[in-house]
Design goal:
Elements: H1 3-12, H2 19-30, H3 37-44, H4 53-65
Length: 72
Amino acid sequence: MNSREIAELLTAHNLRPTQQRIAVYDYLYTHRTHPTADTIYRALVEKYPTFSRTTIYNSLHSLTDARLIRTV
């Protein structure tokens, strides 16, 4: 799934397709594990140095609320 497709998916679920949400969803889509928020942060911070742990947590909460992901 590419960024455009993810953006369309987020929009379809009434979420604004921010760079952060797209990056977090893309990470989860391509890594079929059960990562912690810290694992996602460490994986994305090199490419996106402006992301904070709070950004990751907020993105995860938004994706969960939209029922695009589930917490385990």
